[in-house]
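Running this now, will post back.
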Amino acid sequence: MISHLRGTLLTASPCCVVDVGGVGFEVLITEKDRNLLGRSSREVSFHTYLHVREDRIALYGFLRGQDRELFTRLIDVSGIGPRTALGIMAEESAERIVRAIRSEDHGFLCRLPGLGKRTAERLVVELKDKLADLEMEPAETEPVAALRDDAILALTSLGMPRHAAQRALERIDWARPEMSSLEAIIKEALKHASGI
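Update: finished.
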């Protein structure tokens, strides 16, 4: 089992390749991690999961250990394979996904890539009581999380791609008092998205 990988990032897109002592490892990663990696030729470190099938061996990598832990729980659910699990985690944080499972937020779960209504329900049934030991970094407060979710919904309804909306929201200074208003958040996010 390869549980950790550190080396030089050769490329992050279209696939992530890490050079470790002259050997290039292809690592399958989430879109949010790909966005964080940026340019190549720098040292990177992944928490990894080696998935072995009769016809294929694949190495999945995560910048945060808790993401890998959630990934391993997701693939234990019947009907969810590694590719689907990676898609589920593509843009949302592990904290947000775990919170949705614990609170049985089917609406949120159904919006995740690869999850339909039945699979979302199965996810809640099979994992709701099995995530208590999953250590998560302190999540953002509920009001901020709710505002962030509402802002993503508003921005995507305006035609902005989900990953672009998330990147714009990451640039916002959430500590500013005016950022308690959804309207102010959307205006600020649009400024960041347009490069103003």
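The chain has three domains: 4-62, 65-130, 142-193. More later if anyone needs it.
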